[in-house]
Please model this.
Amino acid sequence: MKSLDEILQNNITGMYYGNRVLLPFHFIALKIVIEKDIITDFSIREKGAYVNEHPDFTEIYFMDYPELETNISKYENIKLVIVEKGKDIFDFNTHRKIAIRPEGNHILSIKELDENTIFIE
Amino acid sequence: MIIKKLFSLIILALVLISFSAEIKAFDQNVSDTSAVIESSVLNDSEEYQLPSVFMVIPFIILLLMIATGPLFYHHFWEKYYPLISVLLGLVTVFYYLIFLNDTHSLLHTATEYISFIALLSSLFVASGGILIRVDKKSTPWLNAGILLFGSVIANIIGTTGASMLLIRPFIKINKHRIKPYHIIFFIFLVSNIGGCLTPIGDPPLFLGFLRGVRFFLVIQEVWYIWLPTVLLVTAVFIYFDSRNKSDVEDTNEYSGKIEFKGMKNVLYLLVIIISVFIDPAVMSWVPSLSPLPIGLREIIMFSVVVIAYKTASEDILKANEFNFEPIKEVAYLFVGIFATMIPALQLISYEANVLGEKLTPGIFYWATGSLSAFLDNAPTYLNFLSAAMGKFGMNVNLPSEVLRFEKLHPIYISAVSVAAVFFGAMTYIGNGPNFMVKSISERSGIRMPSFFGYMLKYSIPILLPIFTLVWLVFYFGKV
Model:
């Protein structure tokens, strides 16, 4: 399993199919912003997003966005605050802000959010 | 797709109606009218039939749904609000077409709506191509300075322009300590109260200017109300912000630099601001495109939308995460609001004219204010200006009488202007930029209060006492 840093450095992409996103690393999601939906409740009682870990990847289902490719506009990203699995979740320095977006043909770009993009944890 | 088709249908219907309205305008008889009122606001000499009071229901339903949708049935609302807004708007449109045979009110509303969207969308797109980076540590005084700066420039580039230009840098500066109150005070000052000094500041004042109110009259009559109000709201903000200690762990080093990218978009902003005056009522050489519900001004603004978007730097658009959703949201919601509020405005106009003689500047202040919080403040302003002038036997449609009125009774213009602009801050729907600022903030990850939360936690406890103070000091007991 690759680390997030390896993925970012080597521009490794994820995948998406409809409302399902597959990311090639393990993480714990703390906050997701998709469009103007701010999702912080990942329990099964909430419909916003369902995060599921597999041995080789982590998947997220966005319940309110059946087709991510058409739901996410040209310059917009899905923004996540995550902690890589194995890192101390209580240390704020381990919290990473990443942006993912569907690029077409099921390819999902994964980038670290730069200083210019506003994303409040 | 259905929603888009319905949206296009409502606009197309209004445009087609406008042609037929123009043809019929000369020989249109308003017959068997038990309650026909002279419209001093909608048209110089047109008469229209008063709508049934029950036709306010679609407007109330829409307002209630805007208030409760995101709170209690979020998923349904997010999916269907365009459809709901357009359908409720169509109820009013068909009522006016079939039962009142009043195409003029619809045409007038379509014209105002198109102007509204042209201004908002052009400012939104032009400012979306500007990137301001302020590398300074957030402090209550820096924030207060930005809010004051925004309040001043709102009078030069409009409340919408100032809001769109400053909201992103304001969020960025405060990224380590941002709370919803930051955004709410921004809405209070930059998106509303600030723009009370000039006709460019807020649409109602511009409508007054088009009717003949001198450009500098508002600044002359309002600055001494504007200044203490802005300072008082800023002082409350500083109090709130000083208690926010969330940045104790911010150990970043700041260069103090301010970086500005996208200079050509400043030029586009300038074009938009100049185009505001390209109106046959202001410049006689400007051709009127009547009966089209669009003028040269709107054509310029929509052209700016296209040019500014096509020529914007990709990097800036990416950094701003530019997308059309916030303006689409405003366009869909306000098409319903504009259409469904026609009966409400006509009934208010009628009542204001009937009761005009009994109304004091204080009552005009509260009446204009309380309605501007929920209705579009531009027609509300004109209705009450018309009623105030009617009280002294003057007609709002005659520029010479407007000029005489502002000299003899400036306090009435002051009360109506201040209330129409200030009270727009009372709700999310009180003024166009409020919703856009909210939407941009939410996309940045800031959880904003609901419609009621905004009112109950912020606007009622903070603004209402300040507005009451304004009334007590400047309008109470005046006749």
